[in-house]
């Protein structure tokens, strides 16, 4: 199993299995990192500039692992492992979200630094880092996670409830 820099497991053997597309890839197949200068200078940038900033992965010249600026971060609000859906708590802003971003590949100091993330609920995230849970396990949401989600739903419904001034007025 792949491990993070600190030695904790990331819960998967192949982080590239969770890659859909690079965050820098535009709809017309160009590399946004090269266009905006985030790629830095060098032979790769000069080559991409000559080719109209076309992404070499799309042209099958490279794989995503060959790209020096590859990034695939999640914006999902559902746990990849157990399927728990996020329920934001806008009423009290100090609560942690139910869904967190989990890094499968960490940026190196070398020429190819990659970032690959998936969405995991806090409970699955802890199980994966404690080395016995895998992202591709077929599991149900943790009972504590369901309880937290339902508490948020109850608070939301209570906050949205309407009471008239007459109902709020205390009778002597």
Features:
3-stranded mixed sheet, alpha+beta, single chain, 172 residues
Strand order of the largest sheet: 1-3-2
- Helicity, in percent? 25-40%
Rg, alpha carbons: 22 Å
Structural class: alpha+beta
Number of helical runs?
A: 5
The average pLDDT score comes to: 83
The secondary-structure element order is HHEEEHHH
Give me the oligomer status: single chain
Tell me the distance between the termini: 68 Å
Folded structure, characterized:
- The chain folds into two domains: 1-22 and 70-162, no CATH class; 24-67, no CATH class.
- The mean pLDDT is 83.
- It is elongated, with a radius of gyration of 22 Å.
- Helices cover 25% and strands 9% of the residues.
- It is α+β, with helices and mostly antiparallel strands.
- The relative contact order is 0.16.
- A three-stranded mixed β-sheet has the order 1-3-2.
- The protein has helices spanning 32-36, 43-50, 122-129, 143-160, 165-168, and strands at 71-72, 99-105, 115-121.
Outline:
By secondary structure, the protein is of the alpha+beta class. Helices cover 25% and strands 9% of the residues.
SSE diagram, text form:
Blueprint: H1 32-36, H2 43-50, E1 71-72, E2 99-105, E3 115-121, H3 122-129, H4 143-160, H5 165-168
């Amino acid at each position: 199993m792949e491990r993070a820099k600190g030695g904790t497991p990331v819960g998967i053997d192949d982080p590239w299995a969770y890659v859909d597309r690079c965050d820098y890839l535009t709809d017309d197949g160009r590399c946004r990192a090269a266009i905006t200068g985030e790629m830095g200078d060098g032979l790769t940038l000069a080559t991409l500039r000559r080719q109209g900033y076309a992404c070499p992965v799309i042209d099958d010249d490279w794989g995503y692992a060959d790209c020096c600026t590859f990034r695939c971060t999640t914006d999902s609000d559902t746990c990849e492992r157990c399927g728990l859906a996020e329920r934001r708590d806008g009423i009290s802003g100090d609560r942690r979200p139910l869904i967190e971003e989990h890094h499968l590949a960490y940026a190196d100091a070398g020429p190819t630094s990659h970032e690959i993330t998936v969405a995991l609920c806090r409970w699955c995230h802890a199980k994966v880092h404690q080395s016995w849970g895998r992202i591709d396990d077929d599991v149900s949401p943790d009972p504590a996670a369901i309880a937290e989600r339902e508490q948020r739903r109850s608070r939301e419904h209570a906050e949205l409830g309407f009471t008239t001034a007459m109902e709020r007025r205390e009778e002597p």
